[in-house]
Design a protein that fits this description.
With 99 residues, the chain is an alpha+beta fold. It has one domain: Double Stranded RNA Binding Domain, CATH 3.30.160. The protein is 25% helix and 43% strand. It contains 2 helices and 4 strands. It has helices at 2-7, 74-92; strands at residues 23-30, 33-42, 45-56, 59-71. A 4-stranded antiparallel beta sheet has the order 1-2-3-4, with helices on one face. The chain is elongated.
Length: 99
């Protein structure tokens, strides 16, 4: 029976099923915003994710983005996450914080 549990995710070994909080590994200032690259390991790859922050009227606003893109290199995912953050800012500006 343990074969079937392991095959379909019922086993208790490894990091399967554990939620790993993304870690900030790089950040840069861009047009009054702070763009942060987040590391989200998925198996042996990294998923593209980032955080865009800006202080507006004394309140720190945050916008988290996660894309389907995956990379095998940590350096590549950091570079692309910062570039994606800049692109979002160029396209939407402070509009990302509207409800």
């Amino acid at each position: 029976m343990s074969f079937w549990k392991n095959l379909f995710g019922g086993g208790s070994g490894g990091s399967a099923g554990k939620s790993i909080e993304p870690a900030v590994v790089a950040e840069e200032a861009y047009k009054g915003f702070t763009v942060k690259s987040l590391i989200m390991p998925v198996g042996s790859e990294y998923q593209l994710a980032g955080l865009i922050e800006k202080e507006i009227d004394g309140e720190l606003k945050s916008y988290k983005f996660v894309r389907a893109d995956r990379f095998s290199s940590k350096e590549d995912v950091v570079s692309f996450a910062l570039a994606k953050g800049r692109q979002i800012i160029d396209e939407q500006g402070e509009g990302i914080y509207r409800p």
